[in-house]
Amino acid sequence: MRKLLVLMVALGLFLTASPAFAQDYDLEMGFFSIGLGAGFGDDTDPGPLIVSGKYWDPQWEIGADMYWSGDEQDEYDQIGMVWLAYRYDLNVDEESATYVGIGGAGIFEEYAFGNQFGPIGLLGWDSDVWGAELKWAFFDPSIISAVVYYHFE
User: How many domains, in total, are found in the chain?
Assistant: First the structure.
């Protein structure tokens, strides 16, 4: 529970500070993004609501997801995940890009999953302001999420 609270505070600080930080500095390296989405699982329902934040550029991204179901009786009520992934652009035009990615992810849930670290795969689309991303991470069982992001420049 302590790890979950620390992750929630860190994610809250990240989501609070990223818009102000992105507007105050000229960051040519990457973008800050925040998003909302839905989560699914193989044998579990890790939480239908996801709050997500990430920092990314066209070659890599780092981020955190917070899954929440609102059902305190469920052992998967709150799950935190962080990831680091390499991105490869499939299709790029003047206004948008489609990409795939692969990397590693860690989960802050000690008892519900077989592993706390596992591989993650990404499939996404980014435009100047909006983006969408489908993530699959294997922790025994798998977690699948779909998130729509708003990008701060």
Answer: 1
Angle subtended at Cα 105 by Cα 117 and Cα 49, rounded to the nearest 5 degrees: 110
Q: What is the pLDDT along the chain (153 residues), one digit of tens a residue?
A: 556 566 666 666 665 655 554 444 444 568 899 999 988 765 555 567 899 999 998 889 999 998 887 666 666 667 888 999 999 988 888 888 899 999 999 988 656 778 888 999 999 999 889 999 999 998 888 888 999 999 987
Instruction: Map tokens 């105050």 to a residue.
Output: 24
Is residue 35 classed exposed, middle or buried when 0-12, 13-18 and 19+ CB atoms within 10 A define those classes? buried
Q: DSSP of 111-138, one letter per residue? A: SSSS-SEEEEEEEEEEESSEEEEEEEEE
- CATH code at position 13: 2.40.160
- Gap between the Cα atoms of 81 and 66, Å rounded: 6
By the 8 A CB rule, do 33 and 151 touch?
yes
For 41-72, give one letter per residue: b (16+ CB within 10 A) or e: beebebbeebbbbbbbeeeebebbbbbbbeee
Residue type, 146: A
Q: How many Å apart are CA 35 and CA 128, to the nearest integer?
A: 15
